[in-house]
Prior knowledge:
CATH architecture of the largest domain: 2-Layer Sandwich
Oligomer: single chain
CATH superfamily of the largest domain: Histidine kinase-like ATPase, C-terminal domain
Order of helices and strands: HHHHEHEEHEE
Shape: elongated
Structural class: alpha+beta
Number of domains: 2
Bound molecules: adenosine-5'-triphosphate, magnesium ion
CATH topology of the largest domain: Heat Shock Protein 90
Helix content: 55-70%
Number of helices: 6
Strand content: 5-15%
Distance between the termini: 52 Å
CATH class of the largest domain: Alpha Beta
Strand order of the largest sheet: 1-2-3-5-4
Amino acid sequence: MPGVYCRDIHAFSRCPRTACAPRRRREQKGSMQAGIATGKDDRARRRRLARRLIAVQEEQRLRLSRELHDDLGQMLASVALELHSIRADSAELDARLARAAQLIDQLSARVHDAAWSLRPADLDRLGLRACLEDLVSMLCAQLGVPGDVDLEALARPLDPEVALTLYRIAQEALTNIGKHARPGRVSVTAHIWDNKLRLAVEDNGQGFDGTVAPGPHHLGLAGMKERLALIGGELTVETAKGKGTAIYADVHLSD
Ligand SMILES: Nc1ncnc2c1ncn2[C@@H]1O[C@H](COP(=O)(O)OP(=O)(O)OP(=O)(O)O)[C@@H](O)[C@H]1O
Ligand SMILES: [Mg+2]
């Protein structure tokens, strides 16, 4: 048997290359396949872990949102009530109390917004389409700009993980528009073709240099990419300085 010669190092020179080659190839192929299998196992394990981390993150967001709303929110509301009801005996003190009450009202509104944005949207009850329409109309009202929304394609039921991923991506893309874009208009649309769904979030604001990777403290775009990859989707960012920004989230739909 050619293989027996090969195990004996002294006999190796007697091993005809051609006789050993098929065995060697089989062994190499075997170890390559084992390597590929291990690589696949590792990737699957990493994906499972990342999914679990996201689920934990969603649970924490919900808990934080409740604490902000029920605890901090209620306390601020009581302080505001108290301040609004106090009357001082000098006009100057009254004005200062009114100013303090106004600041507490603003703080309350911010806490309420933060609690709301941390909360996982009511996707099960309302569906992705209605939740996204809410997000867009809120942002457009804040920015005072018109919004184009065409989300008819999301009327069909979606896998809950896909729906939550798309919601979080749209939420971050819209938050980025509010923080960085200064747009004149915002558009959020969804289309389906060839069993693929594309969610597009676009603005005609100031755009940015998409060829430069964001620094380590900028996590939004990277997070969108990673989250989408976990459900087999892909993120495309089209932007340039002065040319607005388009974020496309593509996912395959199950049959
Ligand atoms: N719609 C947009 N218009 C203009 N610039 C944008 C837009 N979206 C992203 N950017 C630019 O890309 C950078 C990276 O965005 P990213 O969401 O990763 O981080 P961030 O928003 O700065 O911080 P965070 O980690 O809180 O999301 C932003 O700092 C901004 O310069
Ligand atoms: Mg961001």
